[in-house]
């Protein structure tokens, strides 16, 4: 074991710059692990500013002044932000409606499963025990979660914090972009070829991923909302948002969001032909997203094996919950960029 560690460090840590890079990365990991929840608004603001900076830099490269590029970028961000406020009342009403209908949804699904399982030779008490054990916690779970999202004090305070702090942070991050970048460079060691290589590789992959996923999320949510609206689906706004957000969690997201879609469809139509039309349209949206839209928008920006993607989602989702699910792929991309950019002693010799 000692020889293995000695050979490992001799192969990958033969220069002071590599130790400096390891130290900086370790500090970043420790901060994220222990303070990730506290500084979440800052991280979200940095992520939004990073995406908007692409538009701002593009306009500057076309010969526009920095003030004009900043103004147009902030105007677009402001419109998007304003649309969220205008949309919230509709979403809140549907959440309240869904909360009030959860007992009926539970009874409807319970009855459906009873009828379907009755064809198997199970005694009545066995059937009741299976259903009770499997679904007795569902109403309480969903009601508590939705009520917390809609009226919980903690959730409201967090939402207000994000709504107030995030736009200000995004504004100053974009306005004083060069100042922050210069300060960050001052904190780095003078010899930073490795860190520069890691950042260049990460910048190409991460920006392409975030831009593509952002567009994919918006398009899928709008198309789903449009289709569900004309099918007169109950809670169409909530479902379209969930389907849109599910694209941010590859593979796992599509599986998870299918559960409420099917349950609400069964509650509204049972096994009527309308239910099958509803599910078919939903599956068509998922198929077009996975086979047409996602390859078109993302291309091969993120070259991660499905096993690595699912593992990253499970690990970081377990550590940071909801934010871990959303940030799993960017973090995995970051780690991949480090592994590919990190030189070995053999690379130096060659």
TrEMBL record:
It is a multi-pass membrane protein. GO terms for cellular component: plasma membrane. The chain crosses the membrane at residues 20-53, 65-88, 155-174, 214-231, 237-263, 275-298, 304-335. It is found in: Cell membrane. Keywords: Cell membrane, Membrane, Transmembrane, Transmembrane helix, Transport. It comes from the Bacteria. GO terms for biological process: transmembrane transport. InterPro entries: AI-2E-like. Belongs to the autoinducer-2 exporter (AI-2E) (TC 2.A.86) family. This is AI-2E family transporter. It comes from SAR86 cluster bacterium. The lineage of its organism: Bacteria, Pseudomonadati, Pseudomonadota, Gammaproteobacteria, SAR86 cluster.
């Amino acid at each position: 074991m000692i020889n293995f560690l000695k050979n490992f460090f001799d192969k990958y840590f033969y220069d002071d710059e590599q130790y400096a890079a390891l130290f900086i990365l370790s500090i970043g990991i420790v901060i994220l692990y222990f303070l990730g929840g506290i500084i979440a608004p800052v991280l979200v603001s940095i992520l939004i500013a990073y995406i908007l900076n692409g538009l701002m830099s593009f306009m500057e490269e076309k010969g526009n002044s920095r003030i004009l590029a900043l103004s147009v970028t902030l105007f677009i961000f402001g419109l998007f932000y304003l649309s969220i406020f205008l949309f919230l009342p509709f979403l809140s009403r549907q959440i309240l409606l869904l909360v009030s209908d959860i007992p009926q949804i539970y009874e409807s699904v319970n009855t459906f499963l009873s009828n379907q399982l009755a064809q198997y030779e199970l005694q009545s008490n066995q059937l009741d025990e299976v259903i009770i054990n499997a679904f007795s916690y569902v109403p309480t779970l969903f009601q508590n979660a939705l009520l917390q999202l809609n009226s919980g004090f903690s959730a409201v305070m967090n939402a207000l914090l994000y709504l107030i702090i995030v736009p200000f942070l995004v504004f100053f991050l974009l306005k004083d972009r060069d100042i922050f970048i210069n300060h960050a460079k001052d904190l780095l060691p003078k010899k930073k070829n490795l860190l520069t290589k890691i950042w260049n590789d990460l910048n190409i992959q991460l920006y392409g991923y975030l831009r593509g996923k952002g567009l994919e999320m918006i398009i899928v949510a709008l198309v789903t909302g449009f289709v569900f609206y004309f099918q007169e689906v109950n809670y169409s706004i909530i479902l379209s948002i969930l389907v849109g957000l599910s694209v941010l969690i590859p593979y796992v997201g599509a599986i998870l969001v299918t559960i409420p879609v099917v349950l609400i469809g069964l509650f509204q139509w049972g096994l009527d032909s309308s239910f099958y039309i509803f599910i078919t349209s939903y599956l068509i949206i998922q198929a077009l997203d996975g086979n047409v839209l996602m390859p078109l928008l993302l291309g091969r920006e993120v070259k991660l094996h499905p096993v690595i993607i699912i593992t990253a989602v499970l690990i970081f989702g377990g550590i940071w919950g909801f934010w871990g699910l959303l940030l799993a792929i960017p973090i995995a991309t970051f780690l991949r960029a480090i592994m590919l950019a990190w030189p070995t002693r053999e690379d130096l010799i060659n």
